[in-house]
């Protein structure tokens, strides 16, 4: 039977600090995913991941256990993301500069959506989604990310953000509307 | 319910729509909203559009999460020990000797009056100085020996730990990097081959249309 988050926390607080690594292994993927979708950059997401677990470890005694550990962790991660966004002025897109075995770099195809292989269409769409999400205001972006990718319930999101459930729904609605508009704009721009 | 403008969605059941969209409406809410959908084209349309947006959002999947290197922060005692360990042995010995000498001299000055004046029945100044010097020398030798042993052991342990960690991390990163690069190279080759086919296909199509226009 898998050991629960609460049991790992108990062991860590009892002095078995290595036990905390179990929590890190368990939650690093969702925290990384959340951070990447909030910040848009792999490097920033890794840093936030590191900061989140370090902050959680340092403040573990303050975790009361009346809420879920994951909610508390998400809250720490989101605070770290917002802190980073406030410091950031310009987002620079990273490019993949890699060659194949014959020394040729990646070449974009002519844009004919009907004939583009499915994989390329999906990659292009992922790129558009990424750009559109980054353009959303942070308070909307975070509810969309938590609902769509982390699959949290409205109640869980409301708990993490300390806002009413109705506000979560309202931001989700507006966020989805804005995403639709931005995705349409990106498609026509290509 | 009418909306005169695509951007002015006037139905007041947005929250119900969102709850329904994400399957978080209870059975009564679901029945109520489905009844509403039969009467409200706007909500029906919005639901379809949001469904498409959700499909688009699912296109961005995060393939893997990098391994988060977590090392529990040290306690204050461990940090203090490390800080002291940074100083050379002779400096630590000197500091300890100085502290020991101050303690001894303070003790002697407190009890000095009870020993008496040089002309009286107690110890002379030279004798006291000799006692202090011997005590300090003994203490110093003991401390030096102790710290030399500790320092050597600490240094060996630290080097071994760091080397092991470095090797592990380097091997991990190298393996991941090779995997990602191999994958990307294969994708680039495949994409370039596909793009090459597309271009030659369109080139053939253009030639045909040109010849038709010419024949008219």
Describe what this molecule looks like in 3D.
The complex is a heterodimer of chains A (190) and B (216). By secondary structure, chain A is mainly α. Chain A is 67% helix and 0% strand. With 216 residues, chain B is an all-alpha fold. Chain B folds into two domains: 14-57, no CATH class; 76-204. Chain B is built from six helices and no strands. In chain B, helix 1 (14-21) crosses helix 3 (41-57) and helix 5 (89-115) runs antiparallel to helix 6 (125-215).
Question: Main β-sheet of chain A: number of strands, strand sense, barrel status?
Answer: none
Please tell me what the overall shape of chain A is. globular
The number of helices of chain A is 8
Order of helices and strands of chain B: HHHHHH
Q: Which ranges of chain A are low-confidence, i.e. pLDDT below 50, for 5 or more consecutive residues?
A: 92-99, 105-113
* Beta-strand proportion of chain A: under 5%
Proportion of residues in helical segments of chain A: 55-70%
Question: Overall pLDDT of chain A, averaged?
Answer: 85
What is the name of the CATH class of the largest domain in chain A? Mainly Alpha
| Overall residue-averaged pLDDT value of chain B | 79
At the third CATH level, what is the topology name of the largest domain in chain A? Rna Polymerase Sigma Factor, Chain: A
The assigned structural class of chain A equals mainly alpha
Low-confidence stretches of chain B: 1-7, 210-216
Q: Domains counted in the coordinates of chain B: how many?
A: 2
Count the beta strands of chain A.
0
Note the overall shape of chain B: elongated
Biggest sheet layout of chain B: none
